[in-house]
Design brief:
Elements (H helix, E strand, L loop, with lengths): L2 E4 L13 E4 L7 E2 L6 E5 L2 H4 L5 E7 L10 E4 L2 E8 L2 E5 L4 E4 L4 E5 L4 E6 L4 E7 L4 E4 L9
Antiparallel strand pairs: 1-2, 3-4, 4-5, 5-12, 6-13, 7-10, 7-12, 8-9, 8-11
Length: 147
């Protein structure tokens, strides 16, 4: 696992569990099971370092998506997605549809319905969730939208 050290307490963190320093690299961060069979997931050690208050992982394509994921929500406060390589196409319950490429970022509020439509065969994404545990639940498409 990644290297960790506890940071000194500061005024902003009093009363909360300490956050540990984590230095993650490809050699010390394991692949972990994930939500989608077409991705592999590399845990960056953030969940352990924050005692679950945040999670960060890199999702890399094993192959491009063969079909949309279907409408779903994540049970969390927020999910942050930053595209490192390739592209991902998503649609959201408010009608927003985006094809995001390298350098693009998306902040998805927890509980917002969305559907991953397609990815490139080489997509790589940094995903951060707050809090760390992030359940994925299928849901019905929003009114007037296809599943």
């Amino acid at each position: 696992m990644s290297q960790a050290a506890t940071a000194p307490a500061n005024d902003a963190g009093e009363g909360r569990a300490p956050v540990k320093l984590v230095v993650a690299n490809k050699e010390n961060t394991p692949f972990v099971p994930g939500r989608r069979v077409f991705f592999k997931y590399r845990d960056l050690g953030v969940a352990d370092a924050t005692q679950g208050r945040m999670r960060a992982q890199v999702m890399s394509a094993i192959s491009g998506m063969t079909e949309p994921t279907g409408w779903h929500i994540h049970e969390c406060e927020a999910q942050f997605v930053y595209v490192l390589r390739g592209w991902v196409e998503l649609e959201f319950e408010d009608g927003t549809r985006t094809r995001s490429g390298p350098g693009d970022a998306i902040l998805i509020p927890g509980g917002m319905k969305h559907n991953e439509i397609a990815t490139s065969d080489d997509v790589e994404i940094l995903e951060v969730s707050v809090p760390g545990p992030m359940a994925t639940k299928p849901c019905d498409p929003p009114a007037g939208m296809r599943g």
